[in-house]
Each structure stands twice: as C-alpha cells, then as structure tokens.
Amino acid sequence: MSGESGLTVRAIGYLSRCGDDTGEGAPALAEQNAAFLDFCSEHGYDPTAAFLDASCEPQRQGFAQLLEHLADQPAGFIVVAVPAFRRLGADANQCVRAVIQLRARGAQVISLAEGPLDESATLELWERQQPRERGRRVRDAMRRRAVRGQAMGRPPYGYGIGPDGRFEPVDAEAAVVRYIVRMYLDEELGIRRIAQRLNQEGYRTRRGGNWSMVTIRDLLRNRVYIGAYQRFGVSVPNNHEPLITLPDFNTVQQKMAARRTAPGTSHGGQFLLAGLVWCGESGSRMIGVTRRQRWNRADGEKASGVYRYYQSGARTNQSVGEYHTRRAEELEDEVLAHLRGERNGDPRPALVLAGDANAVVAEATSALSKAQSRLRALDRRLGQALDTASVGGGSIQALREESARIIDEYERAEADVERLRGRLAAHTTDAQRRRRRKQLLAQVRDDWESLSFEQQRALLADLIERVVVRDRGIQTILRA
Hints:
By secondary structure, this protein is of the alpha/beta class. The chain has three domains: 10-128, Resolvase, N-terminal catalytic domain (Rossmann fold); 145-261, Hect, E3 ligase catalytic domain fold (Alpha-Beta Complex); 263-357 and 419-480, no CATH class. The chain has helices at 29-43, 61-71, 92-104, 119-128, 132-147, 171-185, 191-200, 213-221, 246-261, 313-318, 328-340, 357-390, 396-426, 430-447, 453-463; strands spanning 10-16, 46-53, 78-82, 107-111, 115-116, 159-161, 167-169, 229-231, 234-236, 277-279, 286-296, 302-312, 325-327, 351-354, 464-470, 473-479. The strands form five sheets. It has a five-stranded mixed β-sheet with strand order 2-1-3-4-5, with helices on both faces. Strands 10-15-16-14 form a four-stranded mixed β-sheet. Strands 11-12-13 form a three-stranded antiparallel β-sheet. A hairpin with a 2-residue loop joins β8 (229-231) and β9. The longest helix has 34 residues, at 357-390.
C-alpha cells in the first residue's frame, strides 16, 4: 500500500505471550505471526520485521529490540501490529507504557483484536482492566466534591483550604503571587529574573526552597488564581476569591505565548556530560544550557549564534550562586582528551580514580534501589494520570502531554537500572573491575566515532564518577 507520497507503508509485528493470566491464554507465537502476515496482506502493508517475547519478564528483550529498531528506521509511515492490547505487558499500566513508547517513535500502533490504539482507545482499554466497582466509587466521590468546588489534594501556593472545603487565600503567600504578576506585567521581567529577585530578597517557596523558573511559569499559567476550579470534567467559575484579575491573567498568557513563539527563545541540544559535571568551587551540579544570541555587526548587518554551555544548576533555574560556566564543546573535548590519555599541559593529575571498590559497589547498589523505586513511582504517576482522565478530569491532550513526560522519565530510569545492573555485575572482583575499565577506555579511544550519541552517553556514565570544574582546570574522576 502506498500513500499520496508514494511511500510504502511498512509493518512490524510484535508477538508476545503476555496476558496469559487473563484465563484466555495467548495464541502460540506461530499463530500470532500468521495473523500478522494475513493482516499485512489484507491491507497491502509491507511486513519488514517481527519481534517476539516468549514470556512476559520485566526485561522484555523482544520489545526492547523493537524500540531500537524503530529508532533506526528512515522517515515514512510505519505500523506496529500487535495481537491485542493485553499482549503488550504484564499489567494494564505496562500495556499503556508500551503504546506510548511506540507512538513516541513515530509508529502507528494497531491491535488486530481492537483496532488502532490512539490515546482514546488506549484509555478505554486500560479502563476495562480496572476493577469496576472501585473505579465507580472513586469516580462518583471525586465528581461530587468537584461539583461543590471542594479542593482535593494539596492547595496551590497562595491558598489554603477553608472550613467549607474551598480554597481561601493565605495572606503572606497571596501577596507573593500578586508581586510576581506585578513584576511580570509592570516591570516586564522575565521568569528567570523574577526567580532571581525573589531568591535575592529572601522569599521562599512553601517548602522553604528557592524559587525556580519552572515554579514561576506554572504559577503564571494556573487559572486557579482567577477563582476558577477545574477538576474531573467539572468547571466551577468564581469558586473562590481570585488573586489575579481576569484582564491581568489574559495579558500574562498573551505575553507568555509571544515569548514562546519569538525567535531564539527555545533551549535545546544534547549534552554529552549531562549529570556528570560539578562545580569545584560551589559544589553544585552543572547543567547544559543553550543560548541563542543576536547582535549587529560593525557594518550594520544583523548576526546571530547558538552557544552551548555547562552552567551551575542553581544559577540556571533559581538565579542563585556564582556564575560558573564552561563552553560545552571545549569541556567535552577536554574530558575526552583525559580519557584517551592525551596530555594537556596540566601538571596536576587530570584523571583519577574515585573511592574504594567496596564503596563503589555499595553506592551502585543504593543507586539501583533508588532507580527501581523511581520506576515504581513513575508507574503510580501514570496510573493516577489515567485515573484522572478516565473520570473526566482532563482532556486527551492533557493526558497525551503528561504521559509523554512520564514515559520519557521512565525510559531514562529504565536505562539507569540496566546500567547499574551491568556495573554491579562487572565489579565482582578487582581484576574484573580493572579489565572492565580498560575495555571502556579502549572504546573511547578506538571506537568513539562509530557510536551513537546515546551509546557515547552510556559509555561515559559507566566510566566517569564526575567531572569537577574549577577556575584553574578540570579533573575527570573515574569510577573505581
């Protein structure tokens, strides 16, 4: 089958024994493959590959290979065909994660049993696997409270919960909300400058922390500050005392939209040493930042440039601390030179080993436990997002955006788990540790250019404990 562009629709099969606990039993993999080929023949699709999992272990090799395969595919329309939604995982949440991961890689997902799996269909299939009585009770209780405009969960900054269950202003916090709006509209400060001023003047968030760009942005977008209450498909205007007038709120939204669409306001780019770089003077982590700058040349012509830096995280998000920064390309090149044994004239040792072996194993074990806990927490977040959408507490677009954020974090946490497991397996003895380190350094020296960016990132994360940046130079500290 060819589309208007003349490109053939490529189809990939995912065959799985997951879902056997439904009592129906999964068809044999050979039967699933025959059904996949019949589906391709019926629709005129070109079957290019099939991946299978003979069991539903947490580490599904077939599904992992499918994701890698999709990442390497050229542009074009790709269909991933699965026998049924429930064959995508051991439980409903895992099935939803699988659909989102496949769609995020540009594939349309089609269930041979249920049809195309877009967000609405996936949510409906997820609901079918939930205990009906529990879902009905939760839905009814939440809607009753929402209709009355009664708060559920922690109130937003600026509000507490009054005797009637509705939001009521907290005077000190409400004054800060109005101050933020005044700085944004009257003084025309950006959200970075607003966070900087609040922190410099001693204001703190409800938890006693510094204000950040994200916190300011989310506050300025929140309709709760005009007195609106929106939960579970219920919208109650004028529900509680507003902290921002409607004209001011609308002006804020217009200004924020204009900033988002203005040239040079997006921050992007990939950073090879993300999570590994620390400032030696302040002790804070340094994060990757992309800046777009414009200027006028001496001849009157306009010029622009994109610059990438590693910069103090506290400085970037909260505008506090000293402004330690390094150009990304220069820092990355210097670290690679350390790993390859290239001399840079620095009399101090640039490449050193961190800690003792037992301490490293203990650290990796603790980190693995935390990464696994993070996976469980993200799975709960996904379930909560699906719960909210299923009772009408948000749009499909909101579910799409939230689930995409969760899956992005989930995939990073999964990669951390696999990396930490590999590190523990490689640290059984001192000899194995030395051999493993030697192999990794050889990869940096001999195979670097042939590796993908993600492979390079994973390699450095396995090798490097941290990169310490000081005014007089840097140190690349290897894991023991």
